[in-house]
Amino acid sequence: MANTFESATSPTRKTDGSGSAGWVKLAVVAAASVFASGLAAAWWYKKAVKQLRQAEEDASNPHYGICGDDPSDEP
Predict the structure, then answer these.
(1) Which DSSP category does 5 fall into?
(2) Where do the domains of the chain lie?
(3) Distance of CA 4 to the CA centre of its chain
């Protein structure tokens, strides 16, 4: 005797837990992407700060662009 709740033409769905494994993989990939982005941002920030400090140390005229009333600043 056939089950009255299932149709002969409808596909049977088996839930074996494979859907949750897909979500776990997606979460791992997302976490790795966030971690890699954070490392890249930290590297870029460190590089920018280093360049700014080096430019500050290598400045040939420390008063360039500063307007002041001191007559010794005038050429």
Answers:
(1) T
(2) 34-59
(3) 53
